[in-house]
Amino acid sequence: xIKKYRFNKEHLVRAILTVFALSSLLFLFLIFIFILFEGxxxxxxxxxxKIILGFKWAxxxxxxxxxxxxxxxxxxxxxxxxxGAPLGLSCAIYLSEYSGKKxxxxxxxxLELLAGIPSVVYGFLGVIYIVPLVxxxxxxxxFSLLSTSIVLGVMILPTIISISFDAIVSVPKTYREGSFxxxxxxxxxxxxxxxxxxxxxxxxxxxxxxxxxxxxxMAVIMIAGNALKIPTSILDPLRTLTGNIALELAYATxxxxxxxxxxxxxxxxxxxxxxxxxxxxxKRKVLK
Amino acid sequence: xxxxxxxxxxxxxxxxxxxxxxxVGILIVIVATICFKGxxxxxxxxxxxxxxxxxxxxxxxxxxxxxxxLVMLSILLATPLGVGTAIYLTEYTKESRFTKIIxxxVESLAGIPSILYGLFxxxxxxxxxxxxxxxxxxVLTTTIMILPTIIRTSEEAIxxxxxxxxxxxxxxxxxxxxxxxxxxxxxxxxGILTGxxxxxxxxxxxxxxxxxxxxxxxxxxASLMDSGRTMAVHFYILAREGISMEKAYATSLILxxxxxxxxxxxxxxxxxxxxxxx
Lengths: 288, 278
Hints:
The structure holds two protein chains of two kinds.
Chain A: H1 2-46, H2 48-52, E1 57-58, E2 63-64, H3 67-98, H4 101-116, H5 119-138, H6 145-155, H7 157-169, H8 173-181, H9 186-197, H10 199-215, H11 218-223, H12 241-248, H13 254-287
Antiparallel strand pairs in A: 1-2
Chain B: H1 5-38, H2 44-48, E1 51-52, E2 57-58, H3 61-92, H4 97-111, H5 114-128, H6 135-159, H7 163-171, H8 176-205, H9 208-211, H10 231-240, H11 245-277
Antiparallel strand pairs in B: 1-2
């Protein structure tokens, strides 16, 4: 009797845990279905070209062009990378190769705490420090591609630092010793041996950082100025895909609301491609 | 002219040093700004009274309660779901195509930006399931959002439990479930707790996903179907609409300090675990 009861209980537990494990897939599926379901009809009705390559966004007058926002999203992401990638990589190298044990004990958690600061707070401080700085020294309103890139660059630092740190640390010690034995200095070892060996992990950290930057919303709408055109200089305001959704979702109705879901579809596709490259295209190589 | 490589080495070291401390400097500037500007406006009344005149006067008590409700309920849902998934992946199955697909799902969920969670929660929970802007819709959306963090940290924690402990348990004729609940989970508990704390930090600071599902009502959420405001949403509205800079600074101080506190506890637990096993 008892044996039979236990047997059943184990099966029940296994069944429940399988359902739990499947729930993540279910949620992912639901997210895809509902965003696509709302976002795709407008692509069919208006035409993919007119939305993705359209220049005019006047959703209440049947113009749903989001091309300037696609370009703007990529511009701020690129800008964030220009600022965040060198700084983040330097920090990762410093942490793994130069810092003493005590400094590391203090530095690493401090850098990871940067990830905990909410994006609204980054946005707010961007408005207080970066925007006036850009306005006073470089001109324009200050709400600009440059300000947004700087703030996003800082926001992606924790991602870049922690992933490239892991990649650098996992380079075998013998590589370093071999290089030192040849009489190479520490820096020569780093840029001729360690960085090339950790290349794929470092690249993955950049791509995941890009994913973070392109998906960032609240900080961006506070700093970017949200103008509906392609910026022609780094001091011009711009509106990103995420900003477009967040700014208008609360009051949009009808086709206007659907067009925000179309914006979401474009964003989702970009994010999935970036994640796929980072997780499967690059990490696989690391394992080999 | 050839520059001495040892000289370059020194310059590089100096440069990297400067950059690392510059980055930490950013964190210090952020925290210091918020502390200095927010501290003068924090008092008993600010914490324990309701906002008046859209937040220009009064306090933030309803948004503190809103934050606590949202975070507690989301954690309550996401923890069993996430830990269960992690147990399934580590204890109940071998690496196979099926686990690969589940891991792909978890990785993908982790990569989806919060605005898309907001968009999904808005159309699915708020509109299709007719929950309206409500605590419930906010909780469900946040649960899905923090799930990947809990799964990944729990999985790491469970994997690091020594195999011998399991073998001893099995040799005492314990069943798999008994081994999991009495041996594996207690040993992995600190690691799991770290993941939970990090998720709390993320949920407290979340704005984009919450504002479109829970709404931004200034009143207390009295039931699951009521709209409410979290501190992060309140802070966003105060700052963006320029309602009151003083109240915005004060709100951000409480917001950031609570998140930092939660994260520091998480790192503290994690460090103790690491030193225990190494």
